[in-house]
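User: For a benchmark we're assembling, each entry needs the component sequences followed by a predicted structure for the full assembly. Here are entry 17's components. Please fill in the structure.
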Amino acid sequence: MMRADDLLLRLYPASFRAEYGEEMRAIWARRRRDASGPLAAAALWIGMVGEAVTNAAALHGDILRQDLRYAVRTLARSPGFALTAILVLALGVGANTAAFSVTDFVLIRPLPFSNPDRLVALWEKLPGYSTMELSPANYVDWKRMSKSFDGMGAYWENSVNLVGQGAPERLGGATVTSDLLPLLGVQPAMGRVFTPAEDREGAPGTLLLSYQLWQAVFGGDAGVIGRRVNLDNEPFVVIGVMPRDFHFPSRDAEVWMPARFHEHDVNFQDRANNILNVVARLKPGVSLDQARAEMAVVAGILERQYPENKQTTAAVYPLRDELSQQSRLLLLALSGAAICVLLIACANLANLLLVRGLARQRELAVRAAMGAGRERLARQLVTESLVLALAGGALGVLVAAAAVPLLARLVPASLPIAQSPSIDLRVLIFAGVISGLTGIGFGVLPALRACRQSDFSALREGMRAGGGHKERLRSALVGAEVMASVVLLVSAGLLVRALWRIEATDPGFRTDGVLTMETALPMPKYNATARRTGFYTQVLSAVRALPGVSSAAYISFLPMTMTGGIWPVAVDGKQAEFGRSGLHTASLRYVTPGFFATLGIPLERGRDAGESDNLDTPFAAVVSESFVRRYWPDQDPLGRHFNMTFHDRTVVGVVGDIRVRGLEGKSEPQVYIPYRQVQDGWLAFYAPRGLVIRSASKPGTLMPAVRQIIRAADPEQPVSDVRTMADIVEDQTASRAAQVRVLGAFAAIAFLLAGVGIHGLLSFAVSRRKQEIGVRIALGAQPGEIVKMIVRQGAWLACAGVVPGIVLAYAAGRALEGLLAGVRPGDALTFAGAVGLCVLMTVLGSLVPALRAVRIDPIAAIRSE
Amino acid sequence: MKDAPPQPDSLLPLPPATFHILLAVAEQDRHGYAIIQDVAARTSGELKLSAGTLYRSIQRMLEQGLLLETRDRPAPELDDERRRYYRITPYGAAVARAEARRLTQLVRMARDRGFAAERA
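Assistant: Structure for entry 17:
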């Protein structure tokens, strides 16, 4: 009984318990004595628990209200302290909330599908390619032979021309098998999804619209279901509109069409035709490893059965993990940096509160003397720090809300999620927890410390409260701040150096004055090479005649916009075959004459692709220097032969290499083929769509005329992706640049906070040692010596932080190595720069306290005690 | 030190427990359990104050100056050392009177509308 009473009493505030606990115990004991029978006793117990909970809650509420009022009053009395603490917290919470909102959005939060953790992506795995799309034939076999999955669906991304709804438009989309959308567990916002019958060969075209397209092009018309639209000149009937937040496979998708495989087609049966992305849902109870093991067996059977499947195995990954290592690392680095900022903010806050605790010891002692219990005082202080935490947290969320749009570039387009995270409940809870933990962690400790000494000794001690132990703790905190800021400065420095290095990479072409756009010609309308040639000729000759335009050309894909388009190469008369190893492949592009001149790619030997290179002349090719180095080192490549795309080709020219795959990473050697040398209907994927124009005019003034020209050539032809070549190159480093900007801001904040920390500590030390310094000056110490003494203390603090900081920064640099683009993690210049900044910060931080120390009037200082 | 107590009317309406406690200590100082018993007896067992409610009310009433803890003790043989005795203050009495006036007026209004029986 006594134990139960104790438990009930524990619910009450300690002060109340101390005051009335005994009496309440006595009353409960009498009540129990009066209760007759087990039923009455049980009822009594239930009643006691109920009233204890309600009364205790009300009492706690009363105290909280009192403490809040008191806290707001005391904080208002020292606005400098309150503002500093709130700002420091806001920076820490803001940095972390912003970093969390993006990291959570991209890496943690479940995908917006039903039971998303059961969804996996399936890939073929070949030597040199860890994730290769599936061929349709292999997909059908994998689906038929595997037992691990509840369902399997496939899609490929494609773009189509929408004609007949206003101006012709290029739409991003995906062609999907009918089982894909049910597999994801997504319901359309309107209408229905594809039936298996609509996914058969020969079925009439059906179409799903994205919510955004439905709004933008169809004006949100509810009668859109059943409407006929023309995509690439094929009629489709709209059967549904997908929900607003459905972005699959990526946020570019605006339309979905059924796959309608042609099962007897060569392209379908060709097991080297790797075009399908495959998603499957694990059966309940089947683990990822079990599925992997089963798919290994399935791939093994097919490998023995079909020679094209030689060395083809299966890869199974959670759908959530479908993003590049670099995207992941960029975000993890950002989160790490944010945590550093928070740690610094915490150390700063703890220091502020410790100093304040010292300053308030008299007040606390007075209150203790007047009968306030230790618990009551601690509670008061905790409330005060919670008020600070709440205010700082709220401001931090505002900081984060302002910062998140800057971070949107870090959300990879390849994920089926929206473009930018929003500050939602989940993020707010995170911010609340961080602020709360910081407030409690760094408010409670100083509070308990302060209360432990809250007796009369503080009253007698006067201003000299606070012993050497506390001094050491505060120095350690400042040392930790310096350490964390060194880590941040070095990391940011390394990443800036990496960014500069990448930006300084020569792409192999000149971007200035080059405008680009895409006009993807729809098939089968443009299956005939002659028809395409007609279009290109009309457009190019008109564009070249525009004022200011010096040259213009077409190419299959603009540099850095397409990493695919790779084709096997054979030399020495051997037939090119899909050896399925990355060794003998080259990037393949069809070009019109003038492409190299337009992009400023140097023609090293021979000639450009010419208008006279057609199906009646020998098949020609212009190759890049790396192609020559690979096959004919130290030999004259002109007139040499190689085999590519089923034809023997003669090298007629050699051009400089360009970074086809982007500024980072290696690109395959390049082969350019004259645009007329392709049979009707062949290699439609490579039909030139990228238009490049070198011009002295601004894109804005040029574009209306160009659009006019294209409309004249084909009124149904949309123009898409209008941007300058410089934009395309800049896009390469956009996510890095965004990350570096934010990381740089974090480093600057850290640097500032650490400086403030040093300044605060030394100022406090000077005011505490006023008397001692006064005596020194009275005894003849020169100002230089006093300054030296204070700066030395600052230098010690800096050293204590810089040395472990360098070690940690090196470790951080190693972890970031994947992002450093060849900059060494121990880059001396970066480290020297960071250390130099820390020295500067120390000097600046100690200067003001040192000057204040010099100005101490010895007589006043000695007299003051 | 303390500010002058506010007007008795400003505390109205009193929580029922507070009013009953004031009634219980109106004629004599009582300790906690005696207050509970007195309230129960006067309301024929209708209102049984719990220990938590009682002391929560007492704590607030002490702060408001309605009660004070008395140092006068009854004869030692009747007393338990642990017990605290509470006495109504003149201010407490004024507040109780004000509350009674408020209730009387309410009852009068109810009677005018036929909601309550004529004076028993």
